[in-house]
Amino acid sequence: MKNKFNTFKQSYLWYSFKRDKVAIFSMVIVLFLVLSAVFAPLIAPFNPYDPLNIDIMNSELPPFWMSGSDPSFILGTDDQGRDLLSTMIYGMRISLLIGVGAVVLQSIVGIAIGLISGYFGGKLDSFFMRMADVQLSFSYLMVAIFFTAILQAAVGVGRFGEIAVPFLILVIGFAQWPQYARTVRASVLAEKKKEYVEAARVAGFGAGRIMWGHIFPNTLSPILVLSTIQVANAVMSEAALSFLGLGMPISRPSLGSLINSGFEYIFSGSWWITAFPGILLVILILAINLLGDFLRDVLNPKLYKG
Predict the structure, then answer these.
(1) Which residues are in the ABC transmembrane type-1 domain (predicted)?
(2) How does pLDDT run across 54-67, given as a tens digit for each residue?
């Protein structure tokens, strides 16, 4: 383990990371937000899911620097009287859970299809790529809206709230697998012609072992870059669905549903209910995208100088 860490410290990735202030700052922001979400019960001043912490008489209290505020609620309260800071931390937790879960699902499906399609080629490749073309011809957000609206109408809003997290992971994950499939397929087409693959075939290795044991490790760089981008896209997709009222319910808010719940109050003076969750969402997406841009530049073989 120590040797692997020393190898990483001597790598071009680590060397580039240390010299890139934007990448360091983005990593610090992402780690801070992720750890805040993971340890929300320990960090948040209140538990927004506990009815004992909710008082409707405290609704729409402004942030601490404005008149009429309560020092107990640093960023004010929402329309239900919940501490906005605590609700944002818990909401970010749900947003990240859905985003990461959706990316894990789409990567599993897309990588498997990309490997099989690129390695075997022929009719199997044509079938999978035509499937990807058909799916890419539709906006993934429209696909998610379509299935979410159908399920919400079928089971009811109350029941939908109980299954919203796994369902959003499924619908966002399956809506975006073609990106992984195309990326992996392109890498496989380049790798399978190389000598180490031919040597593995001559040695009698099966197709599964060659694909997963030899070719797949050499496709990890583009997969890593794509994953950072897709996490940001998945979080944005969840926020968009929740903003449209088709995502997380207000009883279990995500950042998107928080923005939606406060949008009707933005012109009545309670701007903070929408503004602060919106700012947090922008910071989260921006930091992830900047980190993804850094990885894309460093892991691009054409830019490698090590």
Answers:
(1) 92-292
(2) 778 778 788 888 88
